[in-house]
Amino acid sequence: MVDHRLRVRSVRVVLVIVLLAAGVRLVQVQVLQAEALSEKAARQRTQQVRVPSVRGDIRDRTGGKLAFSVTTKALSWSPKAMRARYAKSGIDFGARTAAIAARFESVLHDKVDEPELLARMRGNEFTYLAADVDPAQEREITRDYKGEIGVETRIRREYPGGTLASSILGYASRHAASPDGLMHGWFGLEAARDTVLAGEPGSVTADVDGGADGVVIPGTERDLRPAKNGAGIELTLDSDIQYNAQRQLAEYVASTGATGGSIVVLDARTAEILALAGAKNFDPRDPHGPFGLGNSEATGVPAATVPQQPGAVQKLVTAAAVIEHQIAGPDDIVEMSDVGTVTLARKVGPDRYAAMLNAFGLGTRTGAGLPGENAGSVPDRAGWSATTLDELAIGQGLSATTLQTTSMYQAIAHEGVRVPPRIIKAIINSDGTRHEQPAPENVRVVSENTAATLRAKLRATASAGIPGYQIAAMTGPGDAQTPVTIAGILPADNPRFVIGIALNSPIEAAPLFRNVASYLTQRFSLPLSTELPR
């Protein structure tokens, strides 16, 4: 009996101790730690949500948009949060969701299915109700339901010209692994100038529900830090010239069976790149298709990135050196066979020939602003053998891109002054402030007299003439290692354009040159040459 009473007393003592401990803990939690715990809970309910910046436009020289961003809205729904809110406010959940679903259908029409939408709204999981919604439509949908429908800003990149200059522009989209959640470039100018175009994201503080997905509770957004939108880029490209060059090249390659090729059109005075076309072009409408991101030919710009032996168009270097150094008369360069060219080059000598190669910019990148540009290759003068000069004179033993070759002829068109080509004309901030890109440093290659002499004499070798116009050009027939090439000046008596073409098959390039040149004469209503070549 005594033992029983002792056990009862012991239990009572233990219970009292437990209750006292619980009471102390309760006081500690409710009084002493209340503020800290409240702050911790608030932190767990609060998130910094990114506000995406709008990526800058890429435009052509006339202001036409080649790539631009469109702001769209994604509308979401959190059933658990809305059930709790409606219950607290005395709102009928079924009636309210029916009204919202009807509003979606009335604004978006066949873009949504009202019964299916309503079923998802009355489920238990967070869901997106509509994506890619125009901001004006979003405002109409949410007008009477502020704080109930979640609104997320998204940015979509548009390429209105499709494949127009697409391999130059590149491609941008949201990267799954991007830490800032922004759209970034995959290749081309979109990648090379990503820091200029992307801008900086902003942020907003918002409450999130207690679920694992941390869904933002509509209507709780606050403390907005606006995004800084990206700057735009204005290119030197002329969309019409670019479109014609791409079309002409594609049709010519298809009709002749050539395996590839490139076209470059430069402004003769400024060396601004007006067109830069390749035979294969990236398709931004199907980025994962056959001409998508996985196709290196479609995402490349061979005119600037693929160097090849220039062949006979390289004979311009010998002709320029011969006239500039008064080694032979102008009549000696009219018919420049391989043997004749080598003979003249030997008279020029290795040192003066190497200096002329350097002045024409061969062996160095043009600095045009194109990603992946290749410098080509020229043998170091110290390593020349007894046959190096002979090989170089006829366009062998070195490599150059079509852009570099065309740039050589631009120097002759521009009174002997080479202006390094460029493709970016200006950077335009989101506030409209315009920053013209610095003009490249010009290089005097030959004298004005030598340039004029070359233009006059090259007319006699031109095989791509246009009735009524003078053309100063050189052609290279090509072989297994050398593409078929042609480079020329239009018109020779008053240079406006320089055209360079390379084709990867043994076919004639002159007809394609003539087609491109004819378009330019018509597009710009070029006056007829006052003196036709004899």
Summarize the topology.
Layout lengths: L1 H31 L1 H12 E6 L6 E2 L5 E13 L1 H11 L3 H16 L5 H8 L5 E7 L1 H8 L7 E9 L7 H4 L1 E4 L8 E5 H5 L1 H5 L3 E6 L14 E4 L6 E4 L3 H18 L4 E7 L5 E6 L23 H4 L9 H10 L13 H11 L1 H10 L28 H6 L8 H12 L3 E2 L5 E5 L5 E3 L6 E2 L3 H11 L13 E5 L7 E7 L6 E7 L6 H14 L11
Parallel strand pairs: 2-10
Antiparallel strand pairs: 1-8, 2-3, 3-4, 3-5, 6-7, 8-9, 10-14, 11-12, 11-19, 13-16, 14-15, 17-18, 18-19
Protein name: Cell division protein FtsI (Penicillin-binding protein 3)
Pfam family, one: Transpeptidase
Organism: Kibdelosporangium banguiense
Quick overview of this protein structure:
The chain is of the alpha+beta class and about 525 residues long. About 35% of the residues lie in helices and about 20% in strands. The strands form five sheets. Strands 2, 3, 4, 5, 10, 14 and 15 form a seven-stranded mixed beta sheet that branches. A five-stranded antiparallel beta sheet has the order 12-11-19-18-17, sandwiched between helices. A three-stranded antiparallel beta sheet has the order 1-8-9.
Q: Which keywords apply here?
A:
534 residues, alpha+beta, 7-stranded mixed sheet, 5-stranded antiparallel sheet, 19 strands, elongated
